Task: structure prediction
Amino acid sequence: MNRRMPPPLKALALLIYLLLLAPLAIVVAVSFGASPNFDFPPTDLTLRWYRAFFANGEFVSAFFKVSLVLGLAAAVLACALGIVAATALVRFRFRGREALEAFFLAPLFIPEILFGAALYLTYARLGIKPSMTSLLLGHVVICVPFVIRNVMAGLVGLDPRLEEAAMSLGASRLQAFVKVALPLIRSSVLSGFIFAFIISFSDINLALFITGPNSTTLPVFIFNLLLFEGDPSVAAASTLQIVIIGLLIWLVQRLFQPRTLV
Amino acid sequence: MNDSPKRRTWAAILVLPLALYLVIFLVVPFINIIVLSFYTYSPTRIWVPELTSANYAALADGTFLTVLLRTLRLGLVCTAICALLGYPVAYFLARSERRVATIGLFLLVTPLMVSAVIRTFGWLVILGRRGLINSALTALGLDRLPLLYNETAVVIGLVNVFLPFMVLPLMASIERINPALEEAARNLGATWFGMFRRVILPLSRPGLISGCLLVYSAAISAFVIPVLMGGARVRVVGRLIYDQLLISYQWPNASAIATLLVIVTTSLSFVALAITRRTARQEQGT
Result:
């Protein structure tokens, strides 16, 4: 279906893509380079920065014990709260439904740095110390809109008569939802889960404010290293993060056309 | 048509957990900073609960206004560049064949989802003192250029990180324009650019507006990019809030700044949302 797109336009689009992807490509390249000074292009290929990363206990724990665990926990909680709420928004008609939907999506529109500051001040006032749990509770807030959007999109496309049929055959409302609707919208649910995970996994704005001795997340760890000029093991850890996120986005695309991202 | 009372009770039970959660962890923190912004600063106890408007009056101070104006200016420049760069990409994605569009979308969304820290890190390697560009310059026998720690560097970083926020709504808007309109304009003798200016540009305006608002509100509240790429010289509001909270403990003052910024950014974003909704509804109606 070529609609005669002018070649200069294509070239321009590709050039912009190149600029968009350049920083990520550079990070990946540097992580395999032998020079400790982030020289580019790399002269020799090496895995020593990956070894250096895995040898650094604090770094590994920020990656696997904090960020990864936090991302999974935030995604599970956001799904638990979000699927139920999204179902109500799609399947029921009641006054204030649109206002409620806007409220559930509101975290998307509030700058995270301001939410981080607000949460920090509230915790400080209540005497709650920064920990993985207190950060998790904040992450759930910014993850929920992604679950709501994906699950709502899935449910809108699902004929409610399927559930009604199950109920007329003797299933309870809950059974009809769990056994009929949920399996049919599983790719939407999975997309929501993956986005929720990624949002928590790559968040820095909340984590900067709510960071304690044992709850330093990977982005915060990298940020601190960059402020004090770290070595390319930062690039190695970053590359691992890029690969994980790239694979997850690819998976979402296979499941679902993510047209409702922003 | 609303549901029966019994079904309405069910709906209430289902939305209650999330609504309560967001009230506790989102609404209460923001009410808290609004309250704090009216409390009196105390050098020994950080704040005392005596109401004052001094924190807002203090915002009229020259240093803060400089930082605020710089932030708003950088946001404006970043938004304009994003709009300029966003159109070619959005048009390309909207009008290319499905397979190309899928790959293009993947290459747009993946950087968007990778932490801003990592994307900024890439720019540090490119623009740094010993970075890609400066190494090339020294190899050619030229002097090194101070590419980092100035406003240009911050704009480069902001545009790079927030460009997808512009492209996605623009793409959605352009996809909805009937390609027959483009054909008609071309058949009637318009050049491609003439067609773009008279067909695509006016019809994609809702996408452009919502993209601009999203980019602008993200850019004026950015923190990581200005800190890493602008250094101490390019102080922005996000950094000011962070410093006042965690370094100088000026909590009431920081709360006032945050309250101000949150009102500006959320109203911008809700305008963007309203525009998107209205367009969607108009199309359903026709």
Notes: The CA atoms of residues 191 and 252 of chain A lie 5 Å apart. Chain A has one domain: 57-255. Chain A touches chain B through 95 residues (CB under 8 Å).
